[in-house]
Specification:
Elements lengths: L3 H4 E3 L2 H4 L9 E5 L4 E7 L4 E6 L4 E6 L3 E6 L5 E6 L5 E5 L4 E5 L5 E5 L1 E2 L2 E2 L6 E3 L5 E5 L20 E6 L4 E6 L5 E6 L5 E6 L11 E7 L6 E8 L9 E3 L5 E5 L2 E5 L5 E6 L4 E7 L5 E6 L2 E6 L7
The structure holds magnesium ion.
The site of magnesium ion has 8 residues, from strand 17.
């Protein structure tokens, strides 16, 4: 364990209330290739996460450590649970979202939009109304390492999926590389990280903020909310106070709802994604390159 004071870096007094003086960064497991997609299963007291280049979904619990949950995983990346507690996975190589049903069967939820195949669904979040929102950039199609090179049939987008009717709607298309996404606690805002590059000029690497329309089905706005430095935000989560806990090159950055960087949790490896979990939903699980870390915090993930 890293000494607590060595792993946090306060940039704003508000940060100090979010972290604990006597809790440090814990290395839970290592030896993976590139981790992504952590999701906590409170009823089973375990974390599911993906080792993308190794094409497998892994399970970690305090009691039993790491075991294989699903292999092959169709190069699964982002994960979430739906309102019934079922695992939702984004898959690079099969270019779809699936749901693992309680009886063990798997349902493909969506694999195309407007009659064309999706690219490589990257990250996913489920809204309280049961709708599934996910990003569909090109990253997972670009290399054999993360699922096998394939040809894109359409531009990147963020989608809203109604799992009951299978209706899929692009809610925003002006992204190069939409990546992580999360709602504010009241679900009136949706944050989406942009990890693309506009080609020439300034790289498009920031978090955008959208307002959810009154019917809960569409977005407006989309201004730049925050620019991460160093690196860029991949996956992130929102805590109960509305702060964003974001992946970055040098660790986890905590950003207030007003866009201010409050502080950092220093992590020895580049962070790709994270989630809250454990008994009180106050423990941060961090996927960082080849390792899985955790940190007990003094806040809780948004319910
Ligand atoms: Mg991602």
């Amino acid at each position: 364990m890293h000494h607590p004071s060595a792993c946090t870096e306060s940039h704003d007094p508000r940060f100090d209330a979010l972290v604990l003086f006597n809790a440090g960064l814990e290395l839970l497991a290592t030896g993976f290739r590139w981790l992504e997609g952590p999701v906590w299963f409170g009823d089973q007291r375990c974390l599911l996460f993906n080792d993308i280049p190794n094409n497998r979904t892994l399970r970690w619990s305090e009691q039993h450590g790491v075991s294989t949950f699903l292999e092959p995983s169709a190069y699964a990346n982002g994960q979430a649970r739906d309102r019934q507690g079922r695992l939702i996975q984004c898959h690079h190589s099969s270019r779809c979202l699936t749901r693992l049903n309680h009886d063990g069967s798997v349902t493909t939820l969506v694999d195309q939009a407007d009659g064309k195949r999706l690219n490589a669904p990257n990250d996913v979040v489920v809204k309280r109304d049961g709708s599934i929102w996910f990003s569909d950039p090109l990253y997972g199609l670009l290399s054999d390492y993360e699922g096998g090179r394939q040809v894109s049939e359409q531009s990147p987008a963020v989608y809203r999926l109604d799992p009951d009717t299978a209706a899929i709607t692009a809610v925003v298309r002006d992204f190069d590389g939409p990546n992580g996404l999360a709602f504010s606690p009241d679900e009136q805002l949706l944050y989406v990280s942009e990890t693309g590059s506009a080609g020439s000029g300034e790289p498009r690497q920031y978090i955008r903020r959208f307002s959810v329309t009154a019917d809960g089905r569409a977005l407006s706005g989309g201004e730049i909310f925050h620019k991460i430095s160093a690196g860029w935000a991949d996956g992130f989560r929102v805590d109960e106070q509305g702060n964003l806990w974001c992946s970055a090159d040098d660790g986890v950055h905590v950003i207030a709802a007003d866009g201010t960087l409050l502080g950092k949790v220093r992590v020895p490896q580049r962070v790709s994604n994270l989630c809250f979990g454990d008994r009180f939903n106050s423990r941060l699980f961090i996927c960082a390159s080849t390792s899985l870390y955790s940190l007990f915090t003094n806040t809780r993930g948004a319910a």
